[in-house]
């Protein structure tokens, strides 16, 4: 949105107003949210990761997860400037059910959510998608491709996740800046189309 003001000589000048948008980066445990935000953030990301202990082994299911030694216990935060007029503030939520109370506060003021999913653990995404829908947050799906996984078609993914036809589904690698940025751009375009 542009605003006008009058300079000392009476000439009207255009002044660009920057728009800030709060975007949630959500997904089940160990899907790559912290990596995604760290890959894209133009500032050093805020991370609240703690070392996983033997005490949490029975709570946090590591089946299908390789090399995970830490877990987010509050949130991740980063910032990404998409254009001169649009800045995204990225808030990553913990993926475990025991942190679900964090969602209510995190969802306030969120323009949209990018739901990261692991194509080999799709059933773990249902609880997260239920929360996004519960709080009425428009969302897009980003399929985080891990090394050595077979490709699934968009149709298979849409059917497995029971998505509406208009819900965007994109593929990304949370470690890759370009593909992660493309996933966020797909969400932003979807949000823009909904509001026009």
UniProtKB/TrEMBL annotation:
Q: Which domain of life is it from?
A: Bacteria
What are the entry keywords? Answer: GTP-binding, Hydrolase, Nucleotide-binding
Q: Which InterPro entries match?
A: Gliding_Motility_GTPase, Gpn, P-loop_NTPase
S-adenosyl-L-methionine as a keyword of this entry, yes or no, is: no
Pfam families the UniProt entry points to:
ATP_bind_1
**SUPFAM superfamilies assigned to the protein according to its UniProt record, in alphabetical order:** P-loop containing nucleoside triphosphate hydrolases
* Similarity remark: Belongs to the GPN-loop GTPase family.
* Protein name (record): ATP/GTP-binding protein
């Amino acid at each position: 949105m542009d605003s006008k003001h009058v300079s000392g000589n009476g000439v009207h000048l255009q002044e660009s107003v920057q728009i800030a948008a709060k975007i949630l980066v959500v997904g089940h445990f160990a899907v790559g949210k912290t990596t995604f935000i760290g890959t894209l953030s133009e500032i050093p990301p805020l991370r609240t990761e703690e070392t996983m202990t033997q005490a949490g082994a029975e709570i946090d299911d590591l089946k299908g997860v390789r090399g995970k030694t830490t877990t987010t216990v509050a949130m991740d935060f980063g910032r990404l400037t998409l254009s001169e007029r649009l800045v995204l503030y990225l808030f990553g939520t913990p993926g475990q059910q025991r942190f679900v109370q964090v969602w209510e506060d995190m969802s306030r003021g969120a323009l949209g959510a990018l739901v990261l999913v692991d194509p080999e653990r799709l059933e773990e995404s249902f609880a997260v998608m239920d929360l996004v829908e519960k709080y009425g947050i428009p969302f897009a799906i980003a399929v985080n491709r891990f090394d050595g996984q077979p490709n699934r078609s968009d149709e298979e993914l849409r059917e497995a996740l029971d998505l509406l036809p208009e819900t965007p589904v994109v593929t990304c690698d949370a470690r890759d800046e370009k593909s992660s940025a493309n996933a966020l751009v797909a969400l932003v375009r979807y949000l823009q189309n909904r509001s026009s």
